[in-house]
Specification:
Oligomer: heterodimer
CATH topology of the largest domain in chain A: Rossmann fold
Number of strands of chain B: 0
Radius of gyration of chain B: 22 Å
Structural class of chain B: mainly alpha
Distance between the termini of chain A: 36 Å
Shape of chain A: elongated
Largest sheet of chain B: none
Structural class of chain A: alpha/beta
Number of domains of chain B: 1
Number of helices of chain A: 12
Strand order of the largest sheet of chain A: 6-7-8-3-9-10
Number of domains of chain A: 2
Order of helices and strands of chain B: HHHHHHHHHH
Strand content of chain A: 25-35%
Helix content of chain B: over 70%
């Protein structure tokens, strides 16, 4: 247990009705693998809540359970006040889910996809058409409305996919890695949409493996690794939980990185991270004074510093500290997946 | 939340409440509409469905027909009802492929997270199948008529035969819906389907009477459901089918429906991928 976990004390039972999602001890196994291994989650109404974790952490499985697509093996949850297992139909009536892979009919046009869903929701004739056209206009897809979805770009697909989740305004919108594989512009578009939706009162639960995405969008973040929630809080709380700050050091002579790493570890008593390029060392430090002493030790050994700085940790460093270095998050956004 | 607003009018993201929940039947109709849209957008699927039977009809009639039945026209009279059965049985594979494709793309996840009758997507699939069977059957029959096929059972015989064909397609369809739910790659569904269907279709009385086959094979051909279906369709179109012919032809489709419909439901409900 670490500080960040303790911050997420469960609210008293009486307050749970104000929660969009309340989950207790959710477990899902696939064979011997415990994909989700006892997760509690409380998401207040109207909040953007991010589930952050590396690939295979159990984010999608958790979301699929909350969206009634997959039955939990243990535990219970309610979504918008409806029990997941006892009244799945009511849950479905108050949620919408945009999966990781576009859940659209590629052969149909964008407009037909929306019409199909509008009719399934119970809109008829002119009402269905009006709703579809309204969404197409909102998501800037009017020009592409008559094109088959297979001709859409990644960003257009994602916009249509989100539009398809908004035929009826959901109480909770589940977004599974909403920007994975999108280029930076399309990513900004999706972020804007998510903020606008939250502004109109929709609770949004999104999964992401991008720290900056969670940092930028979410009011609260749950960090998940190997099926377990290892921390939860606001971005600031998570950062604070890992110590007062990080010392970053760059060396003139990269040959001495190993030696410097050893010294820093000895003086500050924490794991030292190497930047992906291998030129910078980062280490959590309790105080500026301790950092000062560590730097003095480096200089005493004749290790020349090109640069050093103290800063509050990035979420990536937070994740590194929380997982004890086992988890690795995506460092760069991959394009064109 | 943010100082950057939507590019489009913000008001459009205002809350929209759900209309009155539609009936299960109207949900199924919407999925049927989707099947019809598929014909509009992917007309080449019909090409896939009818090209093989057309080739079979032409080749068998003109190449083997004289040798097998004395003359091409005499053979066509025998062969055409059989090729209709073959077409419908093979067509059923495509609905399994379509299902497997949908499942692979996460489209069914969206359907499953909607507050609708959970079997509606399958009912829609069936609507599409029936349409495919009728359209493909009509094309083959038309070509047969042009080549000189004459159904002695007349219009009623043809209507009865098509009704039976739909029942056959419906029954066989369950096999491939189950395969589609079990197998994630559409091409594997196709390969598995045809591997299973080829012996069933060829070791039947579709192409030839089994008189000249070795005894052990004749035993199989006589009880092969495809043979029973073919005999009944032949009889209906010739206007001389007995009720027992039709009942025998319906036995396999009925058994498949009773067995596999619950399996389909179970697989669909538990499909955690």
């Amino acid at each position: 247990m670490n500080d960040a976990t303790r911050m997420s004390d469960l609210p008293p039972v009486g307050e749970r009705t104000a929660l969009a999602i309340a989950a207790r001890g959710l477990v899902k196994c696939f064979g011997a693998v415990r994909a989700v291994d006892g997760i509690d989650l409380d998401v207040p109404r109207g909040m953007i809540f991010a589930i952050l974790g590396p690939n295979g952490a159990g984010k999608t499985t958790l979301m699929r359970m909350l969206a009634t697509l997959s039955a939990p093996d243990q535990g219970s949850a309610s979504v918008m006040g409806h029990d997941l297992v006892r009244s799945p139909h009511q849950v479905r009536a108050s949620i919408a889910m945009t999966g990781q892979f576009a859940s659209l009919d590629e052969d149909l046009t964008g407009r037909e996809n929306l019409l199909l869903l509008a009719r399934l929701w119970g809109f008829r004739g002119r009402g269905a058409k009006a709703r579809a056209d309204d969404l197409l206009a909102t998501f800037d897809l009017t020009e592409a409305a008559q094109k088959q979805v297979k001709a859409y770009s990644g960003g257009m697909r994602r916009r249509l996919d989100i539009a398809a989740s908004l035929i009826v305004t959901p109480g909770v919108l589940f977004l599974d890695e909403p920007t994975t594989g999108l280029d930076p512009n399309a990513r900004q578009d999706v972020w804007r949409m998510i903020r606008a939706l939250a502004g109109s009162g929709v609770t949004i639960l999104l999964t992401t493996q991008y720290l900056d995405e969670a940092d930028q969008l979410a009011a609260r973040i749950a960090v998940i690794d190997k099926g377990k929630k290892i921390a939860e809080g606001t971005s600031r709380e998570l950062k604070a939980a890992t110590g007062s700050g990080f010392l970053h050091v760059a060396l003139v002579d990269p040959q001495r990185l190993d030696e410097a790493q050893g010294l820093l570890k000895k003086h500050l008593g924490a794991e030292v991270q190497r930047s992906p390029e291998g030129t910078q060392l980062s280490v959590m430090t309790g105080s500026a004074q301790a950092a000062n002493q560590a730097i003095s030790a480096l200089i005493a050994q004749g290790i020349e510093l090109a640069d050093f700085s103290m800063g509050s940790p990035s979420l990536e460093e937070v994740f590194f500290a929380l997982t004890g270095g086992s988890g690795r998050l995506a460092r760069k956004k991959e394009n064109g997946q | 939340m943010s100082d950057i607003g939507m590019t489009a009018p913000q008001s459009r993201l205002d809350m929209v409440a759900p209309p009155r929940p539609p009936s299960a039947f109207s949900n199924a109709l919407v999925f049927g509409w989707r099947a019809i849209l598929k014909f509009k957008h992917v007309p080449e699927q019909l090409f896939d469905l009818v090209m093989t039977p057309i080739m079979f009809t032409l080749l068998f009639t003109f190449v083997f027909g004289g040798a097998l039945a004395g003359s091409p026209s005499a053979y066509l009279q025998f062969f055409l009802p059989g090729i209709l059965v073959q077409t419908v049985v093979f067509n059923a594979v495509y609905s399994g492929m379509g299902l497997s494709t949908d499942l692979g793309k996460g489209l069914f996840d969206r359907f499953r997270s909607l507050p609708i009758w959970s079997l509606a997507p399958f009912a829609g699939l069936m609507v599409g199948d029936v349409l495919r069977h009728v359209i493909a059957g009509a094309i083959i029959l038309t070509i047969g008529l042009i080549l000189g096929y004459r159904p002695e059972g007349g219009v009623f015989g043809i209507i009865a035969a098509f009704a039976l064909l739909i029942a056959i397609g419906f029954g066989m369809g369950w096999i491939f819906i189950v395969l589609g739910l079990l197998i994630r790659s559409p091409t594997t569904v196709m390969t598995a389907g045809f591997t299973f269907l080829f012996p069933l279709v060829f070791a039947s009385n579709i192409m030839v009477q089994p008189d000249t086959m070795p005894g052990w094979l004749r035993v199989f051909v006589d009880v092969n459901p495809v043979s029973l279906m073919t005999s009944a369709i032949r009889g209906l179109m010739a206007g001389n089918a007995s009720p027992s012919d039709v009942l025998l032809a319906l036995a396999a489709p009925a058994a498949l429906t009773v067995l596999l419909a619950p399996v389909t439901l179970w697989l669909y409900r538990r499909s955690d991928r």
